[in-house]
Amino acid sequence: MAIREIRVVPDPVLRTPCDEITTITPAVRRLVQDLLDTVDDPGRAGLSANQIGVGLRAFSYNIEGKIGYVLNPVLEETSGEQYGDEGCLSVPGLWYKTRRADYARVRGIDLDGKTVVLEGRGLMGRMLQHECDHLIGHVYLDRLEKEERREAMRYMRAHAK
């Protein structure tokens, strides 16, 4: 359908918890297609609905050639630990080492209301946690150590459009 513009920090939509999808409407179907179209670009691992200005609990992903989506995701389980570079489409140009669980499992639904379970380690685990954070109004900068977070916010203010 459409590749949508990515909202960037400090856009308030990124800090607002998203609403649960209660009915699969034509608008929700268009949203899913837009999420899939917008994430289908090299270097994009995941994209939440609020990153394209829609306050609903949905995200798309593009991991190792597999593109998909989940509605109303709930982070059910995490384990282990990884510490590695993380970036975000809504925080362009910045990459910071970020601590995450190595394994994550998310449960949600698809457009037919059927249960979807996504799980993985490494990049997949990181993406699942990152996108679920977006849907509750957090960006990965919130997970940084205090001084790194300050540095990142200074950079964002200095490079705001």
From TrEMBL:
The keyword Ligase appears for this protein: no
Signal peptide: none
One GO term of the biological process aspect: translation
GO molecular function per UniProt: metal ion binding; peptide deformylase activity
Active site: residue positions: E131
Binding-site positions, Fe cation: C88, H130, H134
Cofactor binding: number and manner: Binds 1 Fe(2+) ion.
Reactions catalysed: N-terminal N-formyl-L-methionyl-[peptide] + H2O = N-terminal L-methionyl-[peptide] + formate
The family this protein is said to belong to: Belongs to the polypeptide deformylase family.
Function text: Removes the formyl group from the N-terminal Met of newly synthesized proteins. Requires at least a dipeptide for an efficient rate of reaction. N-terminal L-methionine is a prerequisite for activity but the enzyme has broad specificity at other positions.
PANTHER family the record matches: PEPTIDE DEFORMYLASE, PEPTIDE DEFORMYLASE, MITOCHONDRIAL
Family annotation (NCBIfam families): PRK00150.1-3
Protein name: Peptide deformylase
Species per Swiss-Prot/TrEMBL record: Bifidobacterium avesanii
Classification of source organism: Bacteria, Bacillati, Actinomycetota, Actinomycetes, Bifidobacteriales
Gene this protein is translated from: def
